[in-house]
Amino acid sequence: MRALLLAAGLGTRLRPLTATTPKCLVPIHGQALMAIWLQRLAQAGIGPFLVNTHYLSEQVDAFVEASPYRKDISLVHERDLLGTAGTLVANLKFFEGSDGLLIHADNYCLADFSAFLQSHLNRPPECVLTMMTFRTDTPSSCGIVELDMRGVVVGFHEKVANPPGNLANGAVYILSSELLQRLGSDLRGVTDFSTEVLNRFVGKIYSYETAATFLDIGTTENYAKANACP
Question: pTM here?
Answer without folding.
Answer: 0.95
